[in-house]
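Hey L., structure's done. Input below.
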Amino acid sequence: MSGAAGARRSLRTKLPESNSNPEGQPPIGRAALFGLCPRCGAPTLFEGPVRFAPRCRACGLDFGAYNVGDGPAAFLTLIIGALLIVAALLVDFALEPPLWVHVILWVPLTVAAVVLGLRLAKAALLASEHQRRAAEGRLAGKDEHD
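Output:
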């Protein structure tokens, strides 16, 4: 068989089954939405609006060990910017409000959308890395200093 009908899970992959969550670990969506620790489920993931805490105050998981990076920031900012520009143009064509209404409406909405989007994306990536046990690639039989 070929294609999706013949697809099997490779014996070499070490990804956990999609339906199995070790006890105490929240699903990725819930962890992202509520800022939960991916190990114990305590709401300790964030120290600020989008800054991770150094470690979980409940179980001690080191959040600095995960490499979320700045990918979500650039990607989400571009998407949110495009969507808000379209919305602003639609409001302008339909209602023709003065410029100050646009400033009062779109500046806070943009800031809130970017902060919420970054918070959700970064938390989802960290939870996914934890649940999938993501790590830097290593060659078999090679020492780290070679």
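The chain has a mean pLDDT of 79. Residues 99-131 form the longest helix (33 residues).

-- N.
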